[in-house]
Amino acid sequence: MKSKPFLLSDFQVKMALNRRLLPVKAHFFLFMAVSGPILPYLTVYGKQLGISEVVMGTITAVVPLTFLLAKPVFGFIADYFYEKRKFIFMSLIMSMSLFYLGLYFVPPLNIEMDYSFLENNHSRIHFCDNSQPVSADTSNASVWPIQVCNVTCHNETTLHSCPIIGLNCGQTFCYEKTLPDICNWTDIPEDCHRKCLKEISQNSQLFQSTQFYIFIILMTLSMITFNVSNSISDAICFDMLGENGENNYGYQRVWGTIGFGITAFLGGLGMDFWSDGEVKNYNPAFFMIIVFTLLDMICCVKLKLPKMQTTENILKSLSKVLQNKTMSIFLVFVTLVGVLDGFIIYFMFWFLEDLAIGTDQMKHIKVLEGLTVAAETLGGEIIFFLLSGKILKTLGYGHTLTLCFFNYALRLCLISFISDPWWIVAIELLMQGPTYALCYTTIVAYANAISPPGTSATMQGIIAGMDDGFDLSTIHAVFQKILQKTIVKISQFNQLYVIIEKFYTSTIFNV
């Protein structure tokens, strides 16, 4: 007779908890939906503006270093000014969105073309603007292109086949690789028009451009505010879940994955739909940023944060935990995982676009990139965010971390074999969940489990700073040199896989 009231009461408690956590779920969905249509495309957006892979690699090597300081500092501020943490939190989100929107106003970079047209023993160098095609008479000329941009020939005469490119007049192409051979073009009575989509070898011209520095500042600030907001979101989520609520984190965070995946896909689809040719229109992404930011602000206003136990000395409490040997091993693992995530996040789309150029699939590249993010988030991530609590309960933190490391090695191995960019959709659908989703949940859950009372935001900031800071800058410093000569070749993914596989087989984590 006593069991029935108990079950009813238990059911009512669960329903109350579900309603209490609805704002958390809604925030994760809306917050990640803000970044979905722009964050995965930042590097290729910079590429379209005229920034090379070398310069972009340098940027993404330096920017994450700021996370090492920014995340713990803002986490400490959120813990120290506990009563003001919602205001701090909302201010960071609004700032992030404003920095994203600022990218809309950055014009393409004007870069001097490094083309030499030799005609009658005279060399001519032309100026190329990304948005304005430049005319040049290529009749009876031999062309030594350093890098080839879009070329459209406006006449009725057939262009003699080039052994490297092979075109007919009236067509447009984009061939973004160094061409060491000489291509002879003859019998063209009319002009050809070129439109540059890619930075030329004179990177020094970039550093003299105002647009370049505006882009760098906005990209840096948007990445910092996104990452800091993400860390504080995790801390607030764990505060809402209460003590020993780590295994339920995935049920909340999965909504962020859904929001990110939907807007990333819709953003890519919208860009291709409203774009003409290879120059993409990012207006759909900026429109979605505005809409979802406003909705997230409404959600955050309604978010009721619980009163938590505080500590008199945050730094002293944390120092005891950080001196633990197990914690040191954990931080090493977090750093290595960030290396892998950073390479995939910042360079995979560049890799896909190079594959697409080689296979003549650039027309729908944004759809492919959007599908890739959708496959990652709406496929594997959803499943493993939901299963992560049960996996952690069964395997524990240490064995789960080790499993994630093996999964990353397998993922990189599979990427190394693809020759058609569309294969990446299947790989990411299968592997994003057991790598990123499971590993991310394990890291933030363990960080929360070991953090002293009143230090959750600071601890999440420290862990996230190691994950997104030192490790990302290290991998970018290495791979931007590789990119300078090879763009992103499949062999680099394979080499990284071998390194990770060897490290995995010789390392056991007992966290």
Automatic annotation (TrEMBL):
<keyword id="KW-1133">Transmembrane helix</keyword>
<protein>
    <recommendedName>
        <fullName>Major facilitator superfamily associated domain-containing protein</fullName>
    </recommendedName>
</protein>
<keyword id="KW-0812">Transmembrane</keyword>
<feature type="transmembrane region" description="Helical">
    <location>
        <begin position="21"/>
        <end position="42"/>
    </location>
</feature>
<dbReference type="InterPro" id="IPR024989">
    <property type="entry name" value="MFS_assoc_dom"/>
</dbReference>
<dbReference type="InterPro" id="IPR036259">
    <property type="entry name" value="MFS_trans_sf"/>
</dbReference>
<dbReference type="GO" id="GO:0016020">
    <property type="term" value="C:membrane"/>
</dbReference>
<feature type="domain" description="Major facilitator superfamily associated">
    <location>
        <begin position="24"/>
        <end position="468"/>
    </location>
</feature>
<comment type="similarity">
    <text>Belongs to the major facilitator superfamily. MFSD6 family.</text>
</comment>
<keyword id="KW-0472">Membrane</keyword>
<feature type="transmembrane region" description="Helical">
    <location>
        <begin position="54"/>
        <end position="75"/>
    </location>
</feature>
<feature type="transmembrane region" description="Helical">
    <location>
        <begin position="254"/>
        <end position="274"/>
    </location>
</feature>
<feature type="transmembrane region" description="Helical">
    <location>
        <begin position="212"/>
        <end position="233"/>
    </location>
</feature>
<feature type="transmembrane region" description="Helical">
    <location>
        <begin position="371"/>
        <end position="389"/>
    </location>
</feature>
<feature type="transmembrane region" description="Helical">
    <location>
        <begin position="286"/>
        <end position="305"/>
    </location>
</feature>
<dbReference type="Pfam" id="PF12832">
    <property type="entry name" value="MFS_1_like"/>
</dbReference>
<feature type="transmembrane region" description="Helical">
    <location>
        <begin position="326"/>
        <end position="351"/>
    </location>
</feature>
<feature type="transmembrane region" description="Helical">
    <location>
        <begin position="401"/>
        <end position="424"/>
    </location>
</feature>
<dbReference type="InterPro" id="IPR051717">
    <property type="entry name" value="MFS_MFSD6"/>
</dbReference>
<feature type="transmembrane region" description="Helical">
    <location>
        <begin position="87"/>
        <end position="106"/>
    </location>
</feature>
